[in-house]
Amino acid sequence: MTNSLLKEGLFLLRENGVEIPDGDVNRILDTLERYIAEIELFNPAYKLVGTNDRKELIIRHILDSLSGLGVINRFASSRAEMDVTIADAGSGAGLPGIPLAISMSRCHFTLIELMGRRAGFLNNTLAALGLHNATVEEKEIEKTAPNRFNIATFRAFKPLDRRMLKSLFRLLTEDGVLVAYKGRRDAIEKEFALLKASCKASPSGERESAVVEWELVRVSTPFLEEERHIVVIPRACAMSG
């Protein structure tokens, strides 16, 4: 079931414009299946994802992580002449970082995870998968060396607050972008309106980093009948006090 569901999911992603070369499909399928097996093995002890159902794991976590591949590839492809560095902030079980790293072998991923047991899982999983284009940093996002990444992805931080926004911007190069996995458009617009308002002034009256421009991209997760979006926030489109 795993292989057929994943294979059909990859086919549907490609139909929706996500670029996955024919020659990479079997490699991606095989590596994703082994990744799923690692999650299922350690999930009872480590609480990596909130489901024990394999179908839900594949759809809500693996395929949903890959739903952003087209958007991320758009920014990565514009940097074809240089190494592309991508951070997965608050990586947890490696989502979306590991599925993206499996599919984007020319980019280097850093999985940033504070919790020791989960960081250990990530290190073991990268070794088990032979995934050489990803590494793990076991630390707070705020303590990660700054200005290193062209792209930073995240599925956590709901809602995104001004402190975390500042920490995420800090990870990026000057022309870098944040790529956030989100749900319904109306909820996103409300979240970012509140975020923008909260960033205008801190309690002490000092201005904070604020989002002044962001791009909303509708994406489709195969077999998931829910509204999904990717929010792209360029660091260059933020203002700071």
Oligomer: single chain
Question: Which regions have little confidence, pLDDT < 50, spanning 5+ residues?
Answer: none
Helix percentage range: 40-55%
- Gyration radius, rounded: 17 Å
**CATH top level assignment:** Alpha Beta
Protein architecture, described:
By secondary structure, this protein is an alpha/beta fold. The protein has a single domain, classed as Vaccinia Virus protein VP39 (Rossmann fold). The chain is built from eight helices and nine strands. Helix 2 runs antiparallel to helix 5 and helix 2 packs antiparallel against helix 6. The protein starts with a helix and ends with a strand. The model has no long low-confidence stretch (mean pLDDT 90).
Provide the descriptors you would attach to this structure in a database record:
alpha/beta, 9 strands, two-stranded antiparallel sheet, single chain, 7-stranded mixed sheet, 241 residues, Rossmann fold
Write the layout of secondary structure elements.
Elements: H1 2-15, H2 22-46, H3 54-66, H4 69-77, E1 85-89, H5 97-103, E2 108-112, H6 116-129, E3 134-137, E4 149-154, H7 162-171, E5 172-182, H8 185-199, E6 210-211, E7 215-219, E8 228-234, E9 238-239
Parallel strand pairs: 1-2, 1-4, 2-3, 4-5
Antiparallel strand pairs: 5-8, 6-9, 7-8
Helix pairs in contact: 1-2, 1-3, 2-5, 2-6, 3-5
